[in-house]
């Protein structure tokens, strides 16, 4: 039955000329930066922040701090189902450009993670499940379909023909959990933190086959969550890891300045707080309220255009695909 499902990939550069299309899921994260009178300034400043952060971390044999630049591609994944095509996920692919050697080095695929089905799960399924309930809970099968779709994509010939390594997703630490600094320190990833308990996001990513570790790189002020498959510290080179850190920390400084652009670094015991007042703003304009609103809108879009019309097919496929 899995033969009735097929994946396709489209790639669009995320650069100073980027213009978001109306049908791209990643607009909830990036379109703000590419609209309005300051769109080009926003994009140039964002890309400059990424390059500066990369060079600060890749400081060896880099005396002027300008040896490297990072190129980003938005990878859009569609699912072919019953003769139709549905937008499934969007991720980022990094490419490292070594200005000294003129070499182009593959970075990490993943980084940002945008998913229509995840929007449906978190914006539609979860609120409906907990409506008028005295205690918050998560449905037993929450994230099962999404996890199987994601793992099916990673097993596909489409993924293998485009990417040689498993993805790494980097997002913000959870504001509902407490993090404790450990004695483990990595030369690139920095200081490792551990949280007091798994979050709903951790459990959701676990169904995608991914585990999580939390690191606060040198120069950072809060730990980032890294979701991965395999060995995070062994499967990727230093430059690959830096490409993800520099890209996603930059976006978090824009999205969540209260946490990632705070004026004081996380201590031995840390609880992220979006109401924290001691932080600095970047020079980049970003509408965070739109991001939350669009997640709900795209969750409803997924319900009407994917879940409801293909529920029988998806249920049958999900029961068959046990991986």
Can you walk through the features of this model?
The chain is globular. It has helices at 27-30, 39-57, 116-130, 144-155, 157-162, 200-206, 238-255, 257-260, 288-307, 311-320; strands at residues 5-14, 68-81, 84-98, 103-115, 168-172, 179-186, 190-195, 211-216, 224-228, 269-270. By secondary structure, it is α+β, with helices and mostly antiparallel strands. A 10-stranded mixed beta sheet has the order 1-2-3-4-5-9-8-7-6-10. 36% of the residues lie in helices and 26% in strands.
- What's the N-to-C terminus distance? 14 Å
Number of helices: 10
* Coarse morphology: globular
What does the radius of gyration come to? 20 Å
Instruction: Please list the strands of the largest sheet in the order they lie side by side.
Output: 1-2-3-4-5-9-8-7-6-10
- List the secondary-structure elements in sequence, H or E: EHHEEEHHHEEEHEEHHEHH
Structural class: alpha+beta
The assembly state of the depicted protein chains is: single chain
Describe the main β-sheet briefly: 10 strands, mixed
Q: Tell me how many strands there are.
A: 10
Low-confidence region ranges: none
Strand content: 25-35%
The percent range for helix content is 25-40%
Let me know the average pLDDT: 91
Task: Note the main attributes of this structure.
323 residues; 10 helices; globular
Question: What are the SSEs and their pairings?
Answer:
Elements: E1 5-14, H1 27-30, H2 39-57, E2 68-81, E3 84-98, E4 103-115, H3 116-130, H4 144-155, H5 157-162, E5 168-172, E6 179-186, E7 190-195, H6 200-206, E8 211-216, E9 224-228, H7 238-255, H8 257-260, E10 269-270, H9 288-307, H10 311-320
């Amino acid at each position: 039955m899995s033969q009735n499902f097929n994946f396709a990939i489209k790639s669009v550069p995320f650069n100073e000329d980027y213009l978001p299309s109306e049908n791209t899921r990643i607009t909830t994260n990036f379109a703000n930066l590419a609209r309005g009178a300051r769109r080009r300034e926003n994009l140039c400043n964002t890309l400059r922040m990424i390059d500066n952060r990369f060079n600060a971390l890749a400081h060896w044999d880099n005396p002027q701090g300008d040896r490297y630049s990072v190129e980003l591609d938005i990878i859009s994944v569609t699912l072919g189902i019953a003769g139709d095509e549905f937008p499934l996920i969007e991720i980022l692919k990094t490419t490292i450009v070594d200005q000294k050697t003129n070499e182009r080095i593959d970075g990490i695929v993943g980084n940002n993670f945008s998913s229509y089905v995840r929007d449906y799960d978190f914006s539609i399924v979860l609120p409906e499940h907990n409506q008028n309930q005295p205690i918050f809970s998560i449905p037993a099968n929450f994230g099962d379909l999404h996890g199987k779709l994601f793992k099916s994509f990673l097993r596909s010939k489409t993924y293998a023909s485009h990417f040689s390594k498993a993805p790494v997703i980097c997002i913000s630490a959870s504001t509902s959990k407490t993090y404790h600094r450990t004695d483990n320190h990595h030369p690139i990833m920095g200081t490792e933190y551990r949280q007091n308990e798994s979050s709903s996001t951790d459990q959701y990513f676990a169904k995608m086959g991914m585990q999580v570790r939390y690191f606060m790189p040198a120069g950072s002020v809060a730990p980032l969550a890294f979701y991965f498959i395999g060995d995070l510290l062994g499967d990727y080179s230093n430059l690959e890891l830096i490409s993800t850190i520099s890209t996603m920390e930059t976006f978090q400084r824009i999205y969540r300045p209260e946490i990632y652009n705070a004026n004081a670094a996380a201590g031995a015991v840390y609880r992220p707080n979006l109401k924290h007042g001691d932080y600095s703003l970047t020079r980049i304009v970003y509408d965070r309220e739109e991001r939350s609103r669009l997640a709900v809108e795209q969750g409803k879009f997924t319900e009407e255009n994917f879940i409801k019309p293909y529920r029988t097919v998806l249920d049958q496929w999900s029961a068959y695909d046990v991986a």
